[in-house]
């Protein structure tokens, strides 16, 4: 039987209960998460809720909803992403999906891209608390990174992730096409509208030299509707 996380304020974010709930739910969807990884995710969420008292990191503050709508929604699609290499998370905000994907795949070198000053400060404090190797915050906009890559100042990435950002043609034509290595993956969290978004941007993706690898469905426990990850691959 799945342990319950009490619905209520952030003061009720009990470490033991939260970790047991997380491990139960990840086990339910076939993700092998260790107790140590669950503890690190608890550190992340506890700090997020602490900072959320003064800056707007998330409108979701109920622990059970955070588990479903932030943590599991970020973790479950991780099964389709590389477990090694350089990953660029665009618009990291409160650390989803980049931070939890790094916890899930420790061998990944994760770069968190964020342009909002207060969120950058939060991410830097979070990284110091987690003390994980090969994770960094890049205080920038992706457009600026694209210029650095075109000038040869920054190497390309093996994968790019983007969640809770509205997809636009420029993300395919300039972000993914310019910043990915040949054969690299662009993963977009499309929510429940995955199929329609894939169709809408099919022409833009082909123009950018990106091949759709899949409109991948997944189910988050406690959420009724099926959600989708769109995964494109940059052609050689």
Features:
alpha/beta, Rossmann fold, 7 strands, 22% strand, 42% helix, single chain
Helical amount: 40-55%
> What is the architecture at the second tier of CATH?
3-Layer(aba) Sandwich
Low-confidence runs: 1-11
Number of helices: 9
Main sheet characteristics: 7 strands, mixed
Q: How far apart lie the N and C ends?
A: 48 Å
Write the element-wise H/E pattern from the N-terminal end onward.
HHHEHEHEHEHEHHEE
User: What's the overall geometry?
Assistant: globular
What does the secondary structure layout of this molecule look like, with pairings?
Layout: H1 15-28, H2 35-51, H3 63-75, E1 85-90, H4 98-104, E2 108-114, H5 117-130, E3 135-139, H6 142-150, E4 157-162, H7 169-179, E5 180-191, H8 194-200, H9 202-207, E6 210-218, E7 227-234
Parallel strand pairs: 1-2, 1-4, 2-3, 4-5
Antiparallel strand pairs: 5-7, 6-7
Q: Could you describe the 3D structure shown?
A:
By secondary structure, this protein is α/β, with parallel strands linked by helices. The protein has one domain (10-234): 3-Layer(aba) Sandwich (Rossmann fold). Helices cover 42% and strands 22% of the residues. It has 9 helices and 7 strands; from the N terminus they run αααβαβαβαβαβααββ. The protein has helices at 15-28, 35-51, 63-75, 98-104, 117-130, 142-150, 169-179, 194-200, 202-207; strands at residues 85-90, 108-114, 135-139, 157-162, 180-191, 210-218, 227-234. It has a 7-stranded mixed β-sheet, sandwiched between helices. Helix 6 runs parallel beside helix 7. The protein is globular and about 50 Å long. Residues 1-11 have low confidence and may be disordered.
